[in-house]
Amino acid sequence: MSAVRRTLAGKLPLLIWLVALVLCVGVILRTHFVADMSAFLPSNPDAQQRVLVEQLRDGTIARLMIVGIEGGDAASRHRASRELAAKLRQSPRFIGVQNGESATLARDRSFYFNNRYLLSPAVTTEHFTADGLREAIGNSLDSLSGSAGMMLKSLLAKDPTGETLELIDNLQQGGGPRVADDVWVSRDDSRALLLLQTSAAGSDTDAQAATIAEVRSSFEAVRGQSGDQANAMRVVLTGAGVFSVHSRDAIKFDARLLAGLSTVFVVILLLAVYRSTRLLILGLMPVLSGALAGIAAVSLGFGQVHGLTLGFGATLIGEAVDYSIYLFVQSGQNSQGAAPRSWEGKFWRTVLIGVATSVCGFGAMLVSGFPGLAQLGLYSMSGLLAAVLVTRYVLPSLMPKSVNMRDIEPIGARLTSAAHWLARGRVIALGLIAAATVFLCVQHAHIWNHDISALNPVPRADQELDAQLRGELGAPDSRYLLAFNAADEQAALRAAEKLDAPLRKLVDDGVLAGFNSPARMLPSLATQQARQSAMPDAATLRSNLQTALVDMPLRADKLEGFVDDVQAARTRKPLTRADLDGTASALGLDAMLARKSEGYTLLIPLNAPASNEKGLDLQQLRTALASSQLEGGNENLHVIDLRDQAESLYAGYLDEAIRLSAWGLAAVIGVIALALRDARRIVRVLLPLAGSVALVMAGLVLSGTMLSILHLIGLLLTVAVGSNYALFFDQGDEDTTPAQQHRTIVSLVLANLATVVGFGLLATSSVSVLSALGATVGPGALLSLLLAAVLVPAKRTSA
């Protein structure tokens, strides 16, 4: 019975491992992967940061997609634009599709005309008095000779006061894209342009990917009907959703490719040493287990996994495979028999100290206010713990009793001699570390990149295309915003109306070049009702018209249509958001009235004068708007510089990461001190870690690279990897046999090769944030091993 129990006890770790793998796979199959920047935004932002966070996550700006049709001749592009717009308007994936067609413009003009008396700010009691009518009609007659004369002449009988043209002018201020052949085109007519608003949020990368696919398939269908010019045309897309999808795909592709290449190299390397397929498969089990555990843990902890975290998984190959290399090579499972118990205890103690330092280093990230940073911390901790547990409790029970491993004694002997030779360069190594430290102290103000673009995974060419297409559309500068949190839609519209007068004064004073307001597109219910009350009854209006038209070339009986429309407007139902569907105003209104789970956020874009190179004086704006007396208090009104907010957001992110890393490193020092309890040994174990970090940082700065948050993660991983090397070099003593010493150094070199190649390949990634990790950890791991050999020399042992 006891034998059965021992057998079951021996198989229990294997059973637990298999069940855990199945559970992890089940979690991963249900995991949602994202690639937008929302994971790198604070989970508890302040009031101004919240506006930026909400816009990036689910704002209308994040739902906009710009489409350009290039190639072919102009006529083919214009026709393709019209046909593509018609197809996309039938799709539920799009809320709005605009391409400048006159049919859309006609709908807008019809909407403005039919609702002109509810929309026009000129509608007051005075406007319909005899004097008010005389002035308004006189202005309309004077404008007949202008550029809008033809339109005004056709509207004069029903709109003698010119409300329609005034509304169109107000809503189209700031210009727009060029129109050719009834569609929007670039300035040189080399592209036809479309502006789409997607139903899916910009942060929903799966839905955005499906939306992009529909645009492309619809374009292919349109292109197939374009004759000889079809093959010459192509479609380009840009926008927040497009960036998210492209970034996710690039990260996935690079992660899979580089992980595959790393795996191939590790397989070749281990086969050359193990000469056993079974040991090779066993050696990769901790890698697989760590990656699955890391992704599953992040999915359970955060509800989603960021693409960068997934990419970070490729790096686990170089770290997790180390544990099995240490076990197989150092365990002495060859013709010489099993290693002694004393060695086994020392081996696992050293490995566990190394793992503990890694967990402490990355554990500090878990308390970060930025979900992306916390994800990386949780992934690293879970992955490394799973890898070492599998190595410790699962692999030994699966290892064969006898392995015909390559004879590594000659290699180990030469490597040991090389390590002793390297130790002679201790003074040189210390000098280089000191020089690097001094250099970093001198350059401390120029080490870290505080620009949020350091986290931008979007290639420069795509960023340039985005700026070009936005410029061709005539999109205004959206750097400055007024934001106001309101209880409901009507409160937001009333706030916009109260802010209108002080903002107009700032425009008149030259402080602002202009602004846009949702109140121009949809006045509040109270304002519409006030305008209805200001309209006179039919008899009064006819009497006022008779008086106003004295000595004017218009007769009152010719304006009966005007009288009828005013009477209809007096009693009609006030406009709501739903009435704007199908018009250009709908998209603009949605961009400025952001609906939240609780209430609305009013967003008013402000345009700085072109001559103002320093930007807007935000304090001056706040002072000018302080007397607006908004509902809910002016403390809910924020004047925001989005560029400054983004930069300060990332600066705070970086500062927090540095601070947490410092706490993590302090914990690493504490773990090593607690484990070694010898000041001299503590110093010589920590010195290679500090030296590799200093040399890598100095090398990156000297190469012209400013460090980002990803470089910082790489430095933490360098410490995690390097601690294993220093600890194994430190464990040598008089009781260590030459064979054990040789196996130790061979295992360290093999592990180091796996790590350096894994991260070295990552440095070649086209995704800048992944290449930053590789460029940091690759050289950092190599330096950690070399400095450990130099500064923590193993004691010579006699045969």
Task: Show the helix and strand layout.
Layout: H1 2-29, E1 33-34, H2 47-58, H3 60-63, E2 64-70, H4 74-88, E3 94-98, H5 102-114, H6 116-119, H7 130-142, H8 149-155, H9 163-171, E4 178-180, E5 183-185, E6 191-198, H10 205-223, E7 234-238, H11 240-274, H12 277-302, E8 305-306, H13 307-313, H14 316-330, H15 341-363, H16 371-398, H17 409-422, H18 426-442, H19 460-472, E9 480-486, H20 489-508, E10 514-515, H21 525-534, H22 538-548, H23 560-571, H24 584-592, E11 593-595, E12 600-607, H25 618-625, E13 637-641, H26 642-676, H27 679-702, H28 709-730, H29 738-762, H30 768-791
Membrane topology: Multi-pass membrane protein
Transmembrane segments: 12-33, 257-274, 281-302, 308-329, 350-370, 376-395, 427-448, 657-676, 683-703, 709-729, 745-763, 769-792
Keywords: Cell membrane, Membrane, Transmembrane, Transmembrane helix
Structure, explained:
By secondary structure, the protein is an alpha+beta fold. Among the domains are: about 100-175 and about 525-575, no CATH class; about 245-455 and about 645-790, no CATH class. About 65% of the residues lie in helices and about 10% in strands. The chain contains 30 helices and 13 strands. Strands 9, 10, 11, 12 and 13 form a 5-stranded antiparallel beta sheet that branches. Strands 3-6-2-7 form a 4-stranded antiparallel beta sheet, sandwiched between helices. Strand 4 and strand 5 (about 185) form a beta hairpin. Helix 12 crosses helix 14 (about 315-330), helix 14 packs antiparallel against helix 29 (about 740-760) and helix 15 (about 340-365) packs antiparallel against helix 16. The longest helix is centred in the first third of the chain and has 35 residues, at about 240-275. The two termini are about 45 Å apart. Mean pLDDT is about 80; it is low at about 335-340.
